[in-house]
Amino acid sequence: DADVTQTPRNRITKTGKRIMLECSQTKGHDRMYWYRQDPGLGLRLIYYSFDVKDINKGEISDGYSVSRQAQAKFSLSLESAIPNQTALYFCATSDPAGEETQYFGPGTRLLVL
Amino acid sequence: ELKVEQNPLFLSMQEGKNYTIYCNYSTTSDRLYWYRQDPGKSLESLFVLLSNGAVKQEGRLMASLDTKARLSTLHITAAVHDLSATYFCAVDTRGSNYKLTFGKGTLLTVNP
To answer: Does residue A59 sit in helix, strand or coil?
Structure first.
């Protein structure tokens, strides 16, 4: 079984709709991250959480919110989706006790019409 | 603000040839990472480089780090088609609370 899972894997939604992307991990890592990937722009950090009570904005947090329900779960919400939020979204985890390598989930492909 | 630049962004090479991808970053780093991404797939960790002069090798890929020059290289030896992918470097720093900043990626295509 995959260590970092994301649901859904693909989602089509309409402008103005609220949607939630979910991430779960079995690696036991405290740190979790949400990124978006756009062609030609690499990965950009949306939010990150170093433990259940610690949530921080990343480079591009406007229009997004997150919830860290447990050590293993970190959800990303788009309160009112807009077309320029169409992207590939990745969740990642890392262990501060190690080399801090980030382990990525399979990604969620989101299309906002 | 930490900036990470990769070049080239696109690389088309023939099987059997050697080439190098460069990753420059703008401030003192604590760790440098190389990732691979196959089309439509997730990112896979390749290397973590922690100190000046660090060199790591896996198969036909070798990564090195020069912290004084703020430069890492990913060298490809005798390329094969299976190495076709996008390669990202990423840097974190204590000053950025260990958040990763990614380069834009290098799309490598290895032709027969």
So the answer is: coil
Do A81 and A68 contact (CB within 8 A), yes or no? no
Interface test with A, best of B9, B42, B46 (most A CBs within 10 A): B42
Overall residue count recorded for chain A in this entry: 113
Mutation site for A-interface testing, chosen from B10, B23, B100 by largest number of A Cβ within 10 Å: B100
Compute the distance between CA of residue A88 and CA of residue A67 in angstroms, rounded to an integer.
19
Place of tokens 């439509």: B40
Provide mean pLDDT across the span B60-74: 95
* Rounded CA separation A66/A55 (Å): 8
User: What's the pLDDT band for A10 if we cut at 50, 70, 90?
Assistant: very high
N- to C-terminal Cα separation, chain A: 33
Residue B39 CA neighbour count, 13 Å, CB half:
6
Give the nearest partner residue to B33 out of A48, A90, A101, using CB atoms.
Answer: A101
pLDDT band at B107 (very low <50, low <70, confident <90, very high): very high
Please state, in angstroms and rounded to a whole number, the distance separating the CA atoms of residues A83 and B46.
33
- Two structure tokens written together for A75: 């959800």
Backbone angles phi, psi at B32, to 5 degrees: -130, 135
